[in-house]
Hints:
heterodimer, A: 456 residues, mainly alpha, 3 domains, two-stranded antiparallel ribbon, 2 strands, B: 121 residues, alpha+beta, Arc Repressor Mutant, subunit A, 3-stranded antiparallel beta sheet, 5 helices, 60% helix, 13% strand
Amino acid sequence: MKTQLDTDIALWRSAVTRDSAVDSADADELEGHLREQIAELVDVGLSDGEAFQIAVQRLGRVDQLTAEFAREHGERLWKQLTLSTTRDSVDRRRPLLEMIVFAALAAVLIQVARVLAGMTGTADMQFMGDPIAPWFVRNLGLFVLPVLAGYFAWRRRLSLRTVLIGAAVVVGVAVLVNVYPFPPNSQTDLLVAIHLPVLLWFVVGAAYLGGETTSLRRMEFVRFTGEWAIYWVLLALGGGVLMGLTALLLEPIAPGAIEDVMRWVLPSGGAAAVIVAAWLVEAKKGVIENLAPVLTAIFTPLFAAMLIVAAVVYVGAGVGRDFDRDLLIVFDVLLLVVLGLVLYALSARDATKPAGALDVIRLIAVGAALLLDVLVVGSMLARIAEFGFTPNRVAALGLNLILVVNLAITAWLLGRTLARRASGGALERWQTGYLPVFGAWAGIVVLLMPVLFAFS
Amino acid sequence: MNIDKDLVAAMATPLVLAILAEGQSYGYAIHKRVRELSGGELEWSDGMLYPLLHRLNRLDYVRADWGTSPEGRRRRYYEITDAGRAELAQQRRQWATATRTLGGLWGASASAPAFASTLGT
Lengths: 456, 121
């Protein structure tokens, strides 16, 4: 039989869980507390109604309570933030307007750079069929990512001092990579082009977090990165359909005109999409939040199966000396994707929940990836011993060593979590603590490697 | 006497860890133990205990496990870990220094030793 007390408690419970900072397990825990408190008060002679009133009051005001839970559970706070922005409908349009301004800025910036680089271009390097100066490719990240960092600095109302420090770092890096005298087709030039966006992504992270880099906050940026990538790909797919249809429409009336259209639309569209995707992540947090666990749950087992097959094949056949460079790049991308998957899954996971079947699969995936990476590092060391150091080999070796360490500790911590010797929190802290290592390595490749190898 | 909010916040971690060092417990029982130890003078809104317990769990100071209460309700039990004991020992040293420092100024008052033992055992 449902008593008045049960109804009261159910009402209170729905109020506590409304803002999603308190999940149903926490609500169970709080309800247990409430019921015991009520029972104790009834024992000393109070009525059900009186006891309920007092017990609820002692638990604390619902909004303060949920705020406290939201502070502790960052992954739920995520949802909380959207609510607070959608509630004040007064300046609902403002974020949209800000986004458009920054997206336009990125679109224009990359277009100006493309036109300028096209004028000084030689046949050595081409961009969409046009000759282009090598500095365009090297600086690609610099045309877009500082704008994204600026967007967050603006949205977060960062202090002038913080903004100036960030700007000084970006300008310093930009000046250095452009005064370095790279000869045409230099290896180090290409390495800078690949690693500079990674370095700049850390600047974006600093702006995103507003300089607050605790473990919980860093995890938020990891989550942002994963979701930003999903949105960017979605936008790119939409853009691809649009361009494909445009090409079909233009073909009969103006053959060849599509190349000209592409030349203008593609770089600007891609750059603007970087900002739009970031805005979407912020504006539509709740939507993707439901998607992230599903995506990782689908792809983790698939990647685990693929990695096991690859590990068995390569261990059986041996990678040997003819482990060529293209395959090496494929391996590195694969390992980074696995790590990304683990990180992204981690960011969507509730650290207080015990380990489950998915963690077993994750451990298998990480174990297979680790095995592959050890093989890669071994073959690379053999190559270096035989042919000596080149910038490419050093960059690849460094990245793989960083990955080996990360994967090994990740596997160890996952194992401990499964054996219930540690909570998921340990793994989360390890991963967020390790993030700066990637940034530092990108910094070394961008700033030091060209000098060390005399820009070869 | 009402204890200052910031002081309560600072005490909360060692207090909860020290109670759990006595043995596995759950939210309401921890809350009752706090009330009992402080003679009702330490007031916090009961709900705040839970985010604190979850934070300690995330930091690996305590382990949480679902069990069942005698009435058959789901109940989350907390147990201190080795890391939690180490943290408690360190907090205990800090509090001992703090009370000794203030005690040196104020002279040994009757409340000081009682306060220290609350935190310690």
